[in-house]
Design brief:
heterodimer; A: mainly alpha; two-stranded antiparallel sheet; 2 strands; disordered N terminus; B: alpha/beta; Rossmann fold
Chain lengths: ~350, ~260
């Protein structure tokens, strides 16, 4: 009991590794900031903008899927509700970014609270089915409430956001580079916040629930409360992604809430690597790039996407992050040899 | 002073009666062994006390308070902890993380969702102490899934102890351990604070003799005997069912 080694001293290697990570992150962020100014085509800028939007969406799903261990098939509900909330506020009231984005967060989080309170009475497949059912209810509502949502036509004419100061003359988000930088900023803020959440005492509880909920209950955690909090946070970030998407394409449609959208984001998370933060972002990137490339060759691109997904699940169940880990392991072995 | 009391505890699975009218009272600091042949209902008894399984009838009292209707986490908050017969760990996490989750459970910090967890030095310190106490310091960074079976058993005990319980239920803590590991575990259990009340299910009679100051014998879901070890051992009915002796032989052996 006497010779307790302090926490840090046992892991000098880990500390050094962490610094390496920070340098790498700074480098990547710097490149992303400079990206639109390197004579880049607007096609690529728009593609990357989309990757950030769906990266946020996929990370938010991963908080519940990969970190809390709950599979949801209704996550698009929060994406779509965020899109409609931001869109309706922007069209009817004000396109101010600091009003539309909080509105999207609020609506998505409240919806997640409602769904979570009921769906979290169950777990496993039943939870999956309930999330699916709730998201389809929201989907149906967007169809029927034509006066609010525009019904099956969707809500069109959503303007790009403006800042409360300076207006369009200072930063015009209709410009694709400026909008790229805005989504990058929101993406980085989301990534940072989620990273902190995962590395907080609260986040460690979520990971404990993923690993063994029964034992968490036995050692004194009211797991349902934590699962609900995780679900609401994920819903809120889903709303952020939805709002950005509505600004980006100027349009919100019932398809944003449809279960196919929930399936798509699930595919992104799994292809990238669930249980990591960077994985879902890479997954979103790969998915969108493949979709762009393959769909330019053939109309039957969903078949090819499906085949790629199946290959991933069979050959690399831990996704792109898992592949990287395996390759890095082999390279390190080679390096040790010589 | 009574710490734990069970009153008229019954558990039925359909027509199958697993426990019938089980009653006993455990004083503070007592070390009580629950023994009995396989299928006697020992683990079921623990499941009812810890709340994993609802009772069919009867009551469980902790510190004089009726806890029969409480969920497992609520009982944990009130000072009850248990180990499981089958290792029930956070297999994807390392030894340190396993124990830290248990330490954190009773330190009202789990709502902190932005602060970095490794900044909470009090929790880290407590975790290191428990690892040192249970001889797991060397294994602190090893994933629980990579431990040997005996080490996993030790971690199982560490996770329960880390919640700092007043009442600890141990379900066959030495099952499957090597003799050396068993010896260490017995020492460990003996070194736990004297005011910690411990109930232990155990088949190894040497372990029971080393730890227990009272014994309860279960047989087909009923309490067969309850008392000091030498009283229970001399009880003719215990000899009859537990040692498989006939009535006459039992009397002979007891004499």
């Amino acid at each position: 009991m006497q010779n307790v080694v302090p926490f840090q001293e046992l892991q000098p290697g880990k500390r050094a590794n962490e610094w390496k990570k920070y340098y790498l992150a700074a480098l990547v962020i710097g490149l992303l900031l400079l990206f639109p100014f390197m004579n880049t085509s607007s096609y690529l800028i728009n593609l990357l903008t989309e990757v950030f939007i769906f990266g946020i969406f996929a990370m938010s799903l991963d908080l519940i899927l990969g970190f809390t261990g709950m599979a949801s098939l209704g996550h698009a509900a929060f994406f779509g509700l965020g899109a409609y909330a931001a869109g309706i506020v922007a069209v009817r009231y004000s396109p101010d970014l600091f009003i539309t984005l909080p509105a999207a967060v609020l609506v998505a989080a409240l919806a997640a609270l409602l769904v979570g309170l009921l769906a979290l009475r169950t777990s496993g497949v039943y939870f999956l089915m309930l999330t699916l059912a709730f998201s389809q209810m929201f989907y149906a509502a967007t169809f029927k409430w034509t006066w609010l949502t525009g019904g099956s036509d969707g809500l069109s004419g959503i303007p790009r956001p403006v800042l409360p100061f300076g207006g369009d003359s200072l930063i015009n988000f209709f410009d694709s580079t400026n909008f790229y930088l805005l989504t990058l900023a929101v993406f980085l803020a989301s990534y940072f916040l989620l990273w902190r959440i995962i590395h907080s005492p609260f986040g460690q509880v979520l990971i404990g629930i993923r690993e063994n909920e029964k034992r968490m209950l036995a050692i004194g955690y009211e797991t349902r409360k934590f699962k609900l909090a995780s679900f609401v946070i994920a819903g809120a970030f889903g709303g952020v992604a939805g709002a950005l998407n509505a600004f980006y394409i100027g349009y919100a449609s019932p398809q944003d809430l449809f279960w196919a959208m929930s399936g798509q984001v699930l595919v992104m998370v799994i292809m990238g690597g669930a249980g990591t933060l960077i994985g879902p972002v890479l997954g979103a990137g790969l998915f969108l790039m493949l979709q762009n490339v393959v769909s330019s060759y053939t109309e039957r691109w969903p078949i090819i996407m499906g085949a790629i997904f199946i290959t991933f699940v069979l050959a690399a169940p831990k996704g792109m992050v898992g592949i990287y880990g395996k390759v890095a392991e082999k390279v390190r072995c080679r390096l040790w040899k010589h | 002073m009574e710490t734990l009391k069970v009153e008229g505890l019954c558990k039925n699975y359909g027509a199958l009666k697993v426990l019938r009218q089980v009653e006993f009272t455990v004083r503070k600091g007592e070390r009580r062994a629950i023994i009995g042949p396989n299928g006697a209902g020992k683990t079921t008894l623990f499941n009812l006390i810890s709340g994993e399984v609802p009772v069919s009838q009867g009551k469980v009292f902790l510190h004089g308070q009726d806890i029969t209707g409480l969920k497992p986490y609520q009982r944990s908050v009130r000072g009850l902890a248990r180990t499981f017969q089958k290792n029930n760990l956070f297999l994807g996490l390392n030894v340190f993380q396993n124990v830290r989750l248990a330490v954190q459970a009773h330190q009202s910090v789990s709502h902190r969702f932005i602060a970095k967890y490794h900044r909470f030095q009090g929790i880290n310190q407590k975790t290191e102490e428990i690892l040192a106490h249970l001889g797991l310091t060397e294994k602190r960074d090893v994933p629980a899934s990579d431990l040997s079976y005996g080490e996993q058993r030790q971690l199982e005990l560490a996770v329960a102890v880390a919640t700092n319980p007043q009442v600890l239920l141990l379900d066959e803590p030495t099952a499957g351990m090597s003799p050396a590991e068993t010896f260490r575990t017995v020492e460990l259990i003996a070194s736990l604070p004297k005011d910690m009340t411990i109930l232990i299910i155990e088949h190894d009679m040497d372990v029971v003799a080393a730890i227990a100051d009272r014994m309860t014998v279960l047989h087909y879901g009923e309490v067969l005997a309850d008392g000091l070890p030498h009283e229970v051992k001399a009880n003719p009915r215990v000899m009859e069912v537990y040692l498989g002796l006939e009535e006459g032989e039992a009397h002979h052996a007891g004499a």
